[in-house]
Each structure stands twice: as structure tokens, then as C-alpha cells.
Amino acid sequence: MRKAFTLIELLVVIALIGILSTLVIANLNSARERSRDAQRKSDLRNIQTALRLYYNDTGSYPITSAFPTGGNPWTVGMTTYMSTFPKDPLSPTQDYRYVQTDSDTYTLDACLENKSDDKCVTDASFCPTSECKYTVKP
């Protein structure tokens, strides 16, 4: 009657645990990327809502140079459009890009991590690491 595992049995179990943990970590990282991308899209929708409020008050969208940066409030005169302007969830130093094309239109961009996202547009100039840009317009 045996009372212990053989060396081969232990090596097989350790190899299986290693393979399973690798698969779990890979799936977890993918889920984290999708979660951060969902946060970026939500941030752009919130900014878009603030831009609509600004447009309703002033009749035009703000000029590109007057757009706030992440972490700061967006206040014009006595009106606060956003108490805290959102930051990228992974890279807080990377601001979302806003460009006013004329008084009635703009583009608002964020870099996504998940290149297989159905809204991903390849743009290495704005998104050098992921090359995946997400854009909203009015």
C-alpha cells in the first residue's frame, strides 16, 4: 500500500496548475481591458452630455484650447458643466482628445485597449500603444 505521491504525479499536478493559472490570468487581463474600455466610453458619453449643456447655453461648442484636462472641474463663468473632468482609467496623464471642427461640430476621442472592439478605428498617431481609437461626435 502506497502512502505518498510519486515524483511523476507531483510534476503532472504542478504542470496542470501552471497551465490553468496561465489561462485564468490571460482571461482576467482581457476582462480588465474590456472594463477599462467600457469606462472610457462612459466617460466620453458624460463629456458629450456636458458639451450639449454648454452648447445649449452658448450656441456653440467650446474652442479646442479652452477644453479642460483630466481631474479638473469644467466651469465657465458661474456654470459648472462637470465637477471633475474624467481621466483615462489606465493612464491618468493621457487626456481624452477634443477637437472643435466648427461652432456646431467636434470630435471626442479615447484610446481603447481592446483592438477587437467593434467601434475601434486604427490611429497610431493618437494611440501609439494600442492603435485603437474610439470617437464620438454630436
TrEMBL record:
<keyword id="KW-1133">Transmembrane helix</keyword>
<dbReference type="GO" id="GO:0015628">
    <property type="term" value="P:protein secretion by the type II secretion system"/>
</dbReference>
<dbReference type="InterPro" id="IPR045584">
    <property type="entry name" value="Pilin-like"/>
</dbReference>
<dbReference type="GO" id="GO:0016020">
    <property type="term" value="C:membrane"/>
</dbReference>
<dbReference type="InterPro" id="IPR012902">
    <property type="entry name" value="N_methyl_site"/>
</dbReference>
<keyword id="KW-0488">Methylation</keyword>
<dbReference type="GO" id="GO:0015627">
    <property type="term" value="C:type II protein secretion system complex"/>
</dbReference>
<dbReference type="Pfam" id="PF07963">
    <property type="entry name" value="N_methyl"/>
</dbReference>
<dbReference type="InterPro" id="IPR000983">
    <property type="entry name" value="Bac_GSPG_pilin"/>
</dbReference>
<keyword id="KW-0812">Transmembrane</keyword>
<keyword id="KW-0472">Membrane</keyword>
<protein>
    <submittedName>
        <fullName>Uncharacterized protein</fullName>
    </submittedName>
</protein>
